[in-house]
Amino acid sequence: MISWPEAVAVSALLLVCRFSYGLFVSRRALSHVPGPNSPSLVWGEEWKLYHTKPGSHYHGWKRTFGKVVKISGAFGHPMLCITDESAISYILGAEGIYNFPKPHGVRIWFQKTLGNASRYRGFCVLFQVGKGILYVEGKESHERQRRLLAPAFSQPSVRNFMPVFHEISSKLAVQWLHMMDDLGRDEIEIEVTNWAGRFALESVGRAAFSHEFDLLSGDPSPLLEALDGLTNTQHNATSFYMRALFWIFPSILNIGKKGEMVRRTKMELGQVARKMWRDAKLANDSYEKTLMAQMLKADAASEQRMDLDEIVAQMRTILSAAYEPVSSTVAWVLYELAINPRTQEELRVEISSHNTDPTLDELSTRFPILHGVLLETLRLHPPILENHHEAAVTTSVPLSQPIPGTSESRLVIPKGTILFIPVNVMQTDSELWGDDAHIFRPRRWMDGQSQHHPSLLAFSEGPRSCIGARFAQAEIKALIVALIRQFSVRCDHEIEPFQSFVIRPRVKGTAMSSLPLKVKRV
Question: Are strands 78-82 and 418-422 parallel, antiparallel or unpaired?
């Protein structure tokens, strides 16, 4: 009879053999794809990517090797960096997206922070076993969830949310005025990244779930601290090992300090979600247009009552998805306005010409500079640097131009290959955006000029594009209107991009995200 240590050793040996065989097959199939020589047999390109300016290597690889580049991950795991337009359209489009789901490691990350392990129950006809829309896979399951959520993020719903966005924006502005009054000064330095996070979480709480977090009071918040602490970490060895290895060994997310933060975040999100659901059931606000109302209606219409675990998983997903990208974008918008005073003044004139809080339709038609500022910020500072996918099956993908040295118009991507679509490269490519692609120029989105360049990938595209894009843009615009109408901003610090979960700003040389701006009453 085999002993327990022997069984473990045999299992480990089988896993190593399986990994080695898959690695051999993949590398052989991609042997004709060019790429840099791996700087490390153990870590591949991961160390270089982690310790340099976010996305900087992608530009160099494209110039040197072309639009499809093979790189090595930890232990030689093959990855492809893809900037080929035809390949991207196929991978993100209806024909290919379900063959290229999120990588297994990413799905495990979302499961551990947002999902649950509850067993199958009747409510899974609406939500797949505790999986939120960010990480549910399969065409049928994803489309089912999207249909359920879509009404809450539709244009009519966002139009109804505008008074909420304006109210929250005004509260934030009032807090800044109080800070000035307390110090007896008309200009003070404010660390805006924290306030951006508070705004993002308060907005989604009110608009999506009819719940008030009271974050704009400035008081400590366990939920905010947990969300921020999970990803806003300094570059250290532990964080590097976690990022480098979770692509192929997702179980690493269970261990160490990072594992503790994952569990804490899940707990905090779960406690908040359960409270919101209990409060909503008592209030019975199913007549509203919020996401919570849609869930209440689905609950009332279903033959079997909703399973609380499934509801909590979906609510965790929405809260998390609405927090980091929006807070990051708010910070970068304010930064670009701070270092571009002429654009800031032009925007203030545009905003000041409208004395009332603009409706969603007015924001779309009467504020072209504001629209341009937001889109240009998303172009230069996409919250998500890389769009990650994994080949679920071996798939042939079309190319706009052959791999150098070949005449092949298609690329066969082996099952298990990790794909990176570097959004920053696609949105600053001079071939697509012109010679001023790296310059902040909001007017490229005005006067019909936007018809001459591609659409943004900041919210992805195709069937799995961000369902909350319209919601996010509306709330950000409402906040910028409130702030720029009352304040001017400038930056006296050197700011650099910092990759946590999203791309955040930070004072150069510091460990955590930060954006201290001089804010002056106008």
Answer: parallel
Question: What's the CA gap between 416 and 79, in Å, rounded?
Answer: 9
Q: Are 179 and 308 in contact (CB under 8 A)?
A: no
Collapsing DSSP to helix, strand or coil, 379 comes out as helix
Tens digit of pLDDT for each residue in 99-139? 999 888 888 877 777 665 443 333 333 334 445 666 677 77
Q: Alpha carbon 1 to chain centroid distance? A: 51
> Pairing between strand 78-82 and 516-521?
unpaired
**Block residue for tokens 């992608």:** 58
Query: Measured on CA atoms in the order 488, 489, 492, 494, is the torsion positive or negative?
Result: negative
DSSP-derived secondary structure for 256-278: HHHHHHHHHHHHHHHHHHHHHHH
102: left (phi over 0), alpha (psi -120 to 50) or beta: beta
Encode 413-439: b = buried (16+ Cβ within 10 Å), e = exposed: bbebbbbbbbbbbbbbbeeebeeebee
pTM of the model: 0.88
Token look-up 């005449």 returns: 407
- Give one word for 130, left, alpha or beta, with left for phi > 0 and alpha for psi -120 to 50: left
Q: Give the distance from CA 460 to its chain's centroid.
A: 10
Separation CA 413–CA 30 (nearest Å): 8
Torsion angle defined by CA atoms of residues 204, 206, 210 and 214, in that order, rounded to the nearest 10 degrees: 120
Residue-wise pLDDT for 259-286, tens only, equals 777 788 888 888 888 888 888 777 776 5
- Dihedral, 396, 400, 403, 406 alpha carbons, nearest 10: 90
How many angstroms separate the CA atoms of 349 and 369, rounded? 10
Total residues found in the chain within this entry = 522
Q: How far is CA 402 from the centre of its chain?
A: 31
Cβ of 490: how many Cβ atoms within 10 Å? Answer: 15
3-state secondary structure of 160: helix
Dig out the tokens for 116 from the structure.
Answer: 């649950």
Residue 466 in marked binding region: yes
Tokens 């230069």 identify what position? 380
How far does the chain reach from its first CA to its final CA, in angstroms?
81
Report the alpha-carbon distance of residue 274 to residue 315 in Å, rounded. Answer: 9
Q: Give backbone dihedrals phi and psi of 320, rounded to 5 degrees, phi first.
A: -65, -45
Amino acid type, 28: R
Question: Residue 376: CA atoms inside 13 Å, Cβ hemisphere, count?
Answer: 26
